[in-house]
Amino acid sequence: ITQAYLDRIAADDDALGSYLHVDPEAALERAAAIDGAGTAGTGLAGIPVALKDVVVTEGVPTTSGSKILDGWKPPYDATVAARLKAADTVLLGKTNMDEFAMGSSTENSAYRVTRNPWNPERIPGGSSGGSSAAVAAGMAPWAIGTDTGGSIRQPAALTGLVGHKPTYGSVSRYGLIAFSSSLDQAGPMARTVLDAALLHEAIGGHDPLDSTSIDAPMPVLAECARRGAEGDLSGLKVGVVRELGGEGHTDGYEDGVLARVAEAVALLESMGAEVREVSCPAFDLALPAYYLIAPSEASSNLSRFDGVRYGLRVGDDGNRDLDEVMALTREQGFGAEVKRRIILGTYALSSGYYEAYYGQAQKVRTLISRDFSAGFADVDVLVSPTTPTVAFPLGSRVDDPVAMYAADLCTLPASLAGVPAISVPCGLSDGLPVGLQIMAPALADDRCYQVAAALE
Ligand code: GLN
């Protein structure tokens, strides 16, 4: 199996640009060792997997899509990587991403452009666009992505995959290169709901190495996916979020996306679900709140990249002092979007502005959580489009950060509230995939899988 995927990568990845690092020899050696141990075929043993390059892997180059980590080989495994290793999976390679996971198209990678296998002139989504393109093109059976504001769900939607952002705290963040620590979550990207559930079960659960890890039993996911596939949703209450593409809130949404989502909702109803509209007024403010909170946390997290501890060091020629070396390293090591976020975040946190920006954004975050609580008092799941549009053309938004940010309109509320959300394919518009997003209360990830499987 590993050889077959490596052949596919060798044949197609020059054109698609999904991977940043593939070591065929190491992968085959590992596959042979698993064959030799005789575990292949039990559980996930022997199945290859691709990891987004934000996941730290022992001895395997890890860049987070940034030049500042060029050449860095981590001395340890992220918990996600360690658990996949313990399950005897084979690491196929590390996938391309927006630098430090900041972006919605993978065009902010410092290394290469990734193309959408459905149409190579279009973006594969982001920031986990290397993972989405690899799985959509058959260059990996499934992959791990990370989602801070939509980076699993949005690329999954734009490439016709299933992508799930777990409940915040239910998958360990230990060894994920931090972007915005109160939002970051790793999760599965796969071709079917059942595959996503199986991969999620392999990486999830409590981890004492992550101080925000929830010490609660993992919900049973694969079983729920199987049950959902039977297509009986009687008794399930579904809320369609008005503020995400509903009446009076269709600005920026494509008709084709709204049509496919409406059809998916009708399908849920035909399987016995009771559908109603739910209003979540604070969702209108999710975008500005996220683009203050995430850069604020990033400005702090990224201070560790100083040219001393990891990867790149610029100007250390014996004639410069430490501050100059740090400044030169950061100037040359970070790309434009990363610098923009650091500047925005530093400003929002600075004394005199803190209350006006960061403080206000935190209040909005609370209001969004309250909207979810009120919604979930009435319905079991909330649904919306995953993205307002289908995959857009390469280059069309790179010079317009605000247009790029708008790609996250539908995914940000669940991120800010920490609740689980899945994107499941619901048809095509103009020949390109559309995703339906299903959101559930914290720790009810199983509900996302169950409803998504019914639609498959
Ligand atoms: N597109 C969003 C951003 O640029 C979300 C990224 C993510 O989820 N990692 O911040």
UniProtKB/TrEMBL annotation:
The keyword Cytoplasm does not apply. It is an enzyme of class 6 (ligase). Keywords: ATP-binding, Ligase, Nucleotide-binding, Protein biosynthesis, Transferase. One of its GO terms (cellular component) is glutamyl-tRNA(Gln) amidotransferase complex. Residues 1-448 form the Amidase domain. It catalyses: L-glutamyl-tRNA(Gln) + L-glutamine + ATP + H2O = L-glutaminyl-tRNA(Gln) + L-glutamate + ADP + phosphate + H(+). Its EC number is 6.3.5.7. It holds the Pfam family Amidase. The active site is at K52, S127, S151. InterPro entries: Amidase, Amidase_CS, Amidase_dom, AS_sf, GatA. The keyword Ligase applies. GO terms for molecular function: ATP binding; glutaminyl-tRNA synthase (glutamine-hydrolyzing) activity; transferase activity. One of its GO terms (biological process) is translation. Allows the formation of correctly charged Gln-tRNA(Gln) through the transamidation of misacylated Glu-tRNA(Gln) in organisms which lack glutaminyl-tRNA synthetase. The reaction takes place in the presence of glutamine and ATP through an activated gamma-phospho-Glu-tRNA(Gln). Heterotrimer of A, B and C subunits. Belongs to the amidase family. GatA subfamily. NCBIfam families: gatA. This is Glutamyl-tRNA(Gln) amidotransferase subunit A.
